[in-house]
Each structure stands twice: as C-alpha cells, then as structure tokens.
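Bug: token stream looks shifted between consecutive jobs. Job 1:
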Amino acid sequence: MNLPENVKYTKEHEWIRLEGDVAYVGITDYAQEQLGDIVFVDIQSVGEVLEADDVFGTIEVVKTISDLFLPVSGEVLEQNAALEECPELVNQDPYGQGWIIRMKPAADASFGELLDAAAYKALINA
C-alpha cells in the first residue's frame, strides 16, 4: 500500500498536499482499495467555503455512495475535471492524477491535527 510522506492524512481516509497557497485533496490508497471500482465522483461544493470535516462531495462505487470530508477549513477552488470522464483515476493513481479537489486553505487551517504517514498506517492497521 502506498503511503507518501509528503501528504497529511485524516481518520476519514482523505489526504491533503499543500503546494504553495493551494492544496490538493483526494482519498487514500487504502480507501480506494476498500471501496473498489469508482464509477462517479460528484463535487457540488466548488466555490464554497467549508469547515474542516464538512462533506465536500461524494464518491460512487458499484454498490454504495461515500461522503468525502474536507481535511481543513477553506475554499473549494476546483474539481479534477479528468474524473468526469475517467473516475477510475482515483483507483489507479490516488495521490497523483486521481486527486479530487484543489482548495485554498483558510488562514487558520489546522494542519496540526492531521496524521502523518506513520500515524495513518497505525490507524489502518489497528
């Protein structure tokens, strides 16, 4: 299982990677493996300012729909347009081409409460 060191993780199985003043958010390799084949990603929150742990969208697999939770407070800037035609990118490359949203974290966004790779690994192996 792939657990990059350059991202932070949530207990809800999302990841966030800060690049300058914007961040990319997706679901973890573990989450996509547990969900199975992703058939649709629905993001209705572009342009909205949300709090940490708010639902920013959903992921649909063959048998269920799962909520996606924002790791930190901020504004949802865009959805990964490639997922409209190829939602399976989330399965194939969850930390790269399969990112789900790009966001601008709030000035007071709390990255300190997120998990590093070792803490996330301990969580999923518990």
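Job 2, same session, no restart:
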Amino acid sequence: MSGKEILIVDDEIVTQNMLKTALANAGYAPIVAASGAEAIRLVNERVPSLIILDIMLPDIDGGEVASLLKKDPKTKSIPIIFLSALISEAEEKMAAKYDVACLLSKPFNREKLLNEIKKCL
C-alpha cells in the first residue's frame, strides 16, 4: 500500500467522503475529482495507481472517461474500478468493453472494495 494514490471520481459528496475515509484508513492516499473532465485533468497531472470511477457523472459519463484513459499510452495501464448505483447488463458490458478491473455497486462494501484494490495493485 505505502500511500499509493487512488483517484476517486464521483459527484456525490457522501460517497467521496466514505471512499476517502476507507482508503486513507487502509493506508492509501486518496485524491478526488467530482467530474469526468476534472478526473482526466488530474490523471494527466499525476498518474494515480488506481481509479475508482462512478459511471454516472454530470459531464462525461464514466464509460467515456474510461475510454479516453485506455486510449492514452500514459494512462492505459491504470486499473479502473467502476462504481454504479444501478448495475445492469449495460454496465457489465461497458466494464468489459473498457477492460475495467471490476464493477461494484453503490453503496459499496468496504471489505470487498479493499480486496479488489489489493488484487489490482
């Protein structure tokens, strides 16, 4: 773990705070973006070890963010974990299409999230 940066991309303050607390308590260094555009800007400034990405964002949806990051040689190898309030077949197909590490539902299970992060890192 040793303070690896994990980017949280979610527009909901409550989810951001829950994720920040869970990650910080597990020894990671969380950074937060509230929109897809902000996430892309942050990733280009400081390449995180992993990205937790909400699918439904106010500007660019999580699928488009994942697509842009996977096309860029600088960011294509960053593991992405999708978070979604509604996991449907469409979200599962999107996760497979963009080669995301896993798809978790909101509200998230802390232990399951941390286990998935460990698998990715």
